[in-house]
Amino acid sequence: MNRTITIPEKVKRIINILKAEGMEAYAVGGCVRDSILGRRPEDWDITTNAEPVQVKRIFRRTVDTGIQHGTVTVLLGGEGFEVTTYRLDGKYEDARHPSEVIFTRDLPEDLKRRDFTINAMAYNDDEGLIDAFGGLKDLNEGLIRAVGSPRERFKEDALRIMRAVRFAAQLNFSIEEQTFSAIREETENLKRISAERIRVELVKLLTSAHPEKLLTLQECGITAVILPEFDRELLTPQHNRHHQYDVGHHTVEALKASVSFDALLSPADLTVLRLTLLFHDMGKPDCHTTDETGTDHFYGHAEKSTGIAENILKRLKFDNATTDKVLRLVKYHDHRHEVTEPLVRRTIVQIGRELMPLWFLVRRCDTLAQSVYIRERKLAEIDAFEETCRRILENGDCLSLGELAVNGNDLIAAGLKPGKELGQTLNRLFEAVLEDPSRNRREILLSEISQ
Prior knowledge:
This protein is α+β, with helices and mostly antiparallel strands. The chain is 51% helix and 10% strand. It has a seven-stranded mixed beta sheet with strand order 3-4-5-2-1-8-9. The protein has a two-stranded antiparallel ribbon with strand order 6-7.
């Protein structure tokens, strides 16, 4: 791999200004890793032996982002860049944060406290790559390896346990053997990590190009702590001609199938899709029955899965908008109807027109993760359903009470009294319009009030 990377001009300027003042300065961490791999870094972090007060004196515009931990954000041309002083961490008392931070003048001492070798490299144009712990070798070999003692790194910050698997998913790397063993030994410490932090790492793993690394979470014992519902799926067989995997591996295959659609989706929609696929069959262990022929059935699993998904989403403190979308998609993921315009219109009303594109993706991924039995017919039915949906939306058919040609005031003016009967009449008229959109005309609907 190339040991020379291209630093953005603003980052280079900050480094050069610090060096002109007699300080050391380097790009550090993930930006160095990603640049070596040919990936575009999300952020550029800078490390220096200059203490925060010196950084604030050298640069005119700064923000005290985390000054107690040595971090100052330097503002250049509307962009912010975190500049952090070399430091040693004191004792970790909560499996997440050091009790104190001690500034040091020694770059290797700063790099030593970082999580993984691939994140413990620094770079500037004058000195090139500073790689004290074999990060470049591990990048070449596709390994996630803790810096120094894995158990010490994970005892310091238990979230690193999940970060190891998340990086493995994002980079399609393996976890080095001793690091893997230490993860298994330290997973219980994840109970001390906030739900919000767990959620962020889980979403990053799921929305990576390799969501199948969910199985690595299970192999490490992590899901037993943060997502035991998934472990139950792996113990639930599906002896049924429509399936070829147990419930857990079917879920993983559905997640893998969704990767081919990533380019079509915004980050928010990608998160909703992956979460839906993660949760869509979680009710199956509770609904598992076997008939006299040995065939497994899971009647009512969609409703049960919705309840389980709601509990997990609350437990991990997901926002309301994401929760609402995921629950609707899980509830209706197995929703199948003959492809007629009235039934497609009713499906759009149930699920919501804004969620229909994701619903079709959920259906496709679910089908692709099943057996090959009548798979092509199932996919053709999804295509026909989607084409009918597209036509309905293009026609501007009435799909909500608000789009009905009459409202409550019109019905009152026609002689109905406010109350339950008025609402029932509006719903009856709406049902009639869903059956036949041509009836959504004021005169037609008013003429049907008394019928």
